[in-house]
Structures are given as C-alpha cells and as structure tokens.
Automatic annotation (TrEMBL):
Binding site for substrate: N68, H140
Keywords assigned by UniProt, alphabetized: Hydrolase, Nucleotide-binding
Domain HIT: 42-151
PANTHER family: AP-4-A PHOSPHORYLASE, HIT FAMILY HYDROLASE
Protein name: HIT family hydrolase, diadenosine tetraphosphate hydrolase
InterPro entries in the cross-refs: AP-4-A_phosphorylase, FHIT, HIT-like, HIT-like_sf
Active-site residues, record numbering mapped to chain: H138 (tele-amp-histidine intermediate)
GO molecular function, one term: nucleotide binding
Organism listed in the record: Sanguibacter keddieii (strain ATCC 51767 / DSM 10542 / NCFB 3025 / ST-74)
Chain ranges for the short sequence motif Histidine triad motif as given in the UniProt record: 136-140
Length: 192
C-alpha cells in the first residue's frame, strides 16, 4: 500500500512517495568517523572484514576496492588506500600509483560485467567539497548509463538498484583479473 499525498496536511502535490529509510542511517552519521583522528573510520574497518562481509571487490598492497554502501548508481565502487589519510597530496607515490591502477582495473571490470556507457571518477576533498567521509581519502568510480539521471533520482531523490550489493560484489570480484591492469604502450606510442 502506498502512502497518498492527500493523507498529509497541506496542499496535495499529486506525487507518489517512494521511501528509502535505509538512507537515514547514512544521513544520521552511522559509520562516519567523528573526526580525522577517530578510530571509527569505516574505510579503516572494512579491510579487517572478509571480502564478502566488507563488500571488498579486490585488494592491493596499498589500496583496495569496495562497493559503496550508498551508491549513486549500480556498481558504484570506491578505491581506498589502507592508510588513514585525508588529502590526496598526502599519499605516497606507491599509493598514488596503486589507486590509479585499481581505478583503471575497476573501470575495465565494470565495463565487462555491466556495460556502462561512461563513468564519473572523482575525489571530494573535505566536507565542504562534498566528502561524506572526509577523514579517509577515497576515489569514486561511478558507472553511468544513458537515461540513468531520470526523474527518479533527480526529483524523487531515490535510486532503484537492480541487484543486491553482495551479488554485485560477487560479479565484480569474479571478473577481477588475477594481476592488475598494466599498460602495454608508453605515452609516446599513443596518438594525441
């Protein structure tokens, strides 16, 4: 049974309501560190869990790939360094290289499994820039499809996801190559 706008005070607007109460956990701050020195960081906790329990898709030496618990789109991945560091400029050279390589491999895997039309990649540096967990750097890898920004997420602020996160994790983990994506050409070999 869906809730009707006419059941509430005020002027009915004729819109159906789609409830996503699971988002209130995130909005309320669960799993977000209180501050940069907090031991409650979810990105520090996840590596200690099994891959299945932590939704970890792949692990490297300096960073790992995990599904976003509150995805913008199906297959939304995060590439996180193991080290608790807030700013991109604080990463070591090895961490920068591995975050970049894991991001490239994540894109290849998502393309092979889900066939997106494009990607949004990015890091929000600091709370004012939109970082939900500003204390621990993480790179977003968001697959995009034509028409995925329809009325549902734009107006309804609701996202319909076609499969459970655990199912998506299993598909990506199974498709992840045994060795990371490597470049077979040098920049000089690539046309401009």
């Amino acid at each position: 049974m869906s809730e009707q706008a006419s059941d509430h005070p005020g002027e009915p607007d004729g819109l159906e309501r789609l409830w996503t109460p699971h988002r209130m956990v995130y909005i309320g701050g669960q799993d977000k560190p209180a501050d940069a020195s907090s031991d409650e960081c979810p990105f520090c906790r996840v590596p200690s869990l099994s891959d299945e329990d932590g939704l970890v898709v792949a692990r490297g030496e300096h960073a790992y790939v995990v599904l976003n618990l509150y995805p913008y789109n199906s297959g939304h991945l995060l590439v996180c360094p193991y080290r608790h560091v807030a700013d991109y400029t604080d990463l070591t050279t090895d961490e920068v290289v591995e975050v970049a390589e894991l991001t490239r491999t994540a894109m290849s895997v998502v393309r092979a499994v889900s066939g997106p039309h494009g990607f949004n990649l990015g890091m929000n540096q600091g709370a004012v820039a939109g970082a939900g967990i500003a204390a621990h750097l993480h790179q977003h890898v968001v697959p995009r499809w034509a028409g995925d920004a329809n009325f549902l997420p734009v107006v309804g602020r609701t996202k319909a996801l076609p499969q459970l996160l655990s199912q998506t994790r299993d598909l990506f983990a199974d498709a992840w190559p045994a060795t990371p994506h490597t470049t077979t050409t040098t920049p000089e070999d690539e046309p401009c």
